[in-house]
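Bumping with the actual sequence this time:
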Amino acid sequence: MPVKSFVCKRPLSALVQVQGSEIIIKSHQNPDVLTFNILLIVNFKLTFKGLSEVPMAILKIFTYPDKFLREPAIPVEKVDSAIHNLISDMAETMYDGSGVGLAGPQVGVDKRIIVYDVTQEEQKRSPQFLINPEIVLSQGTIMSEKEGCLSVPEGFRADVKRAEKIRVTGMDRNGKSVDMQADGQLAIVLQHEVDHLNGILFIDRVSSLKRQLYKNKIKKKLKKMGRSRKS
């Protein structure tokens, strides 16, 4: 992802690079001074209006029947600025699509990364990130009613059986270990996204009849689109 750069003329002229959660300030007056007091950076964030409003990239969402969605994702070996940029862009893409979760494979990235936010209110957005998540314990059963997916277009929704309570391990965006328990809606979202990391779509968990009806609908649409391009 490209580094986002700005020029600030007050209180100093500087190139500001935003790399995920990291802020790097390079002074034009004195190129040798690359390290600034943390207080200066904090004040800069508070007074420079545009910094907190920098738009992230909206990534392309891969949709069924793209074969990439069926490929298991691989673990992230190092949490660096590139990963920070990616998860920020994934969060923005999730919100843009009015979703509550998004996994790496859905945006063409074969990394075990998921973002999610079950707050449902735009004013109270609270994006959460899990790197290399693994469901290590599942208990009970709950019905996820009218489950949908950004990678399953045409408004297809269906009821899906999920575990009622789960325990998940992984890392946060800073590479620190996470060991959390979830139930209800959060448990459903986490199971849905971890499925993506294993090449599984929620349509794989519905009845064969519903799945086939959906597949036929998509085939018909793609066939129609193919005829339109030729004409």
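The tokens above came from a reply further down the thread. Residues 79 and 175 are 6 Å apart (CA to CA).
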